[in-house]
Design brief:
Blueprint (H helix, E strand, L loop, with lengths): L1 E8 L2 E8 L7 E7 L13 H11 L3 E5 L13 H16 L4 E11 L1 H10 L5 E7 L6 H4 L3 H12 L11 H11 L13 E6 L8 H9 L4 E6 L10 H15 L2
Parallel strand pairs: 3-4, 3-5, 5-6, 6-7, 7-8
Antiparallel strand pairs: 1-2, 2-4
Length: about 250
């Protein structure tokens, strides 16, 4: 069962869906975090929704939401703001009925995984993180000439909406530097971290996964998918591995 939901993060209203198990609670909670959009929002793209439905069917109260600037949520894309959005999402999920607050997990993809690592490093409400194709750093996005091209593309696809945004480019870029996952992965322990990466990822090279694994502390686990590409949400191997790992840690 999927219920439309919305909640506030800073001044922005974020929109999502809460997917509930059919069994009786309390259930472990899961926040699913999408990546930085590469194309304009398409409401007919059900990839993430199918993932959320699968985890709900497996017994997780699963919140799928759009970060600021994405989908039907308000605001403009802001990497540090995404970390605050995730904090607000966990607060929202924790206030829903029949969620076991001792078992709230985060599963992120690419930029959403980066936000998940950053938030989990400072928020002990998160009991474990599944990171799919996370960058270790954002240097390839925030250094010129890539930065100007990224800004142009993000305005074109609609995740930066306001003509005057960002009001201070240096401050906005510093948000990427602050979120840099390799700086925070080691602070998740003793809570568990699962890293999943495709060996053929041509967006975030496999080397990033090794950097994150080296920076993390136990308990940590790295799964490399042969021929796996960047869009791991549509790779059944990645979702199956994540589900098995989450079930293990939710039952511990």
């Amino acid at each position: 069962m999927a219920i439309p939901v919305s909640f506030l993060s800073d001044q922005w209203r974020l929109v999502g869906e809460l997917h509930l198990p059919e069994t009786s609670g309390p259930w472990p909670g899961l926040c699913i975090c999408h990546g930085i959009p590469a194309v304009p929002f398409n409401p007919e793209d059900t990839g993430y929704r199918q993932v959320a439905a699968r985890f709900a069917a497996a017994g997780f109260s699963t919140l799928l939401f759009h970060f600021r600037g994405a989908g039907l949520s308000e605001g403009n894309f802001d990497m540090l703001g995404w970390s605050r959005d995730l904090s607000a999402a966990i607060t929202f999920l924790s206030h829903t009925d029949h969620v076991d607050m001792s078992k709230i997990f985060v599963m992120g993809f690419s930029g959403g995984a980066a936000a998940g690592i950053h938030l989990a490093a400072r928020d002990e409400r998160v009991k474990g993180v599944v990171s799919c194709a996370s960058p270790a750093h954002f240097r390839d996005l925030i250094e010129e000439p890539a930065l100007s091209e990224c800004l142009r593309r993000w305005r074109e696809i609609g995740i930066i909406r306001d003509p005057g945004f960002p009001p201070n480019l240096a401050d906005w870029v510093s948000g990427f530097v602050e979120v840099t996952p390799v700086r925070h992965a080691g602070r998740i322990a003793p809570r568990p971290l699962l890293l999943i990466h495709g060996a053929a990822d041509d967006v975030v090279p496999l080397s990033h996964a090794y950097e994150l694994y080296d920076a993390a502390a136990e308990p940590r686990h790295l799964e490399i998918l042969t021929d796996g590409v960047h869009r791991l949400r549509v790779d059944d191997r990645a979702i199956t591995i994540a589900l098995r790992w989450l079930r293990k840690h939710a039952s511990a």
